[in-house]
């Protein structure tokens, strides 16, 4: 090996082929993280939708049991729980559909949409649970919301949808990645 051989810069196609498997693995891991966010979202949505009364930490926050509340307050709280349920169910369903179809095909818009939707729902949910934690004697499960926020950012960073896929760019088909499955 000569002195000049050590200074040779790899050709563009060599650099691309070396980074493709790592990028594909990162995208698959991100998709699994997003799926891991979707499943508990669906479960929480179902719990809040079908629960006949509020959660135990709601009782602690209010200092009253469900049966101690007047009918109008019960209706209001149950309606708010159903709205929260709708958000979790919508987010979980959207996430699974986007992971299964456009993200699997590597469509860049969907790779931006999932973490955006997740953070748009879970950041306010985190702030609301922290508010209940700080202003009442209740201990709401705020940590789950934090975990989802961190996982969404982690998956987004692993996926890196802002990076162009040179293979597709060279083919003249936009910048979306090929099938990441």
Summary keywords:
single chain, 181 residues, mainly alpha, elongated, disordered C terminus
Task: Describe this structure as you would to a colleague.
The protein is elongated. It contains 6 helices and no strands. It is an all-alpha fold and 181 residues long. It has one domain.
In short:
The protein is mainly alpha-helical and 181 residues long. Helix content is 72%, strand content 0%. Helix 1 packs antiparallel against helix 3 (71-103).
Which whole number gives the mean pLDDT?
88
Radius of gyration based on Cα positions: 23 Å
* Overall tally of structural domains: 1
Calculate the terminal CA-CA distance, rounded to whole Å.
Answer: 39 Å
Largest sheet: none
**Proportion of residues in β-strands:** under 5%
Share of helical residues: over 70%
Secondary-structure element string: HHHHHH
Provide the low-confidence segments as ranges.
169-175, 177-181
Instruction: Specify the overall morphology.
Output: elongated
Judged by helices, strands and strand pairing, the structural class is: mainly alpha
What is the overall number of helices? 6
């Amino acid at each position: 090996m000569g002195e000049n051989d050590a200074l040779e810069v790899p050709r563009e196609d060599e650099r691309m082929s070396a980074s493709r498997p790592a990028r594909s693995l990162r995208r698959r891991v991100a998709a699994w993280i997003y799926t891991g966010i979707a499943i508990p979202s669906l479960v929480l949505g179902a719990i809040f939708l079908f629960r006949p009364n509020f959660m135990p930490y709601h009782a602690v926050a209010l200092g009253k049991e469900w049966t101690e509340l007047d009918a109008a307050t019960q209706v209001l709280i149950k309606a708010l729980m159903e709205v929260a349920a709708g958000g979790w169910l919508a987010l979980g369903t959207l996430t699974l559909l986007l992971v299964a179809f456009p993200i699997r095909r590597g469509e860049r818009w969907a790779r931006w949409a999932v973490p955006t939707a997740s953070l748009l729902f879970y950041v306010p949910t985190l702030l609301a649970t922290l508010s209940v934690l700080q202003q009442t004697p209740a201990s709401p499960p705020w940590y789950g919301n934090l975990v989802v926020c961190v996982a969404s950012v982690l998956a987004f960073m692993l996926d890196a949808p802002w990076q162009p896929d040179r293979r597709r760019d060279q083919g003249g088909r936009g910048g979306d990645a090929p099938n990441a499955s």
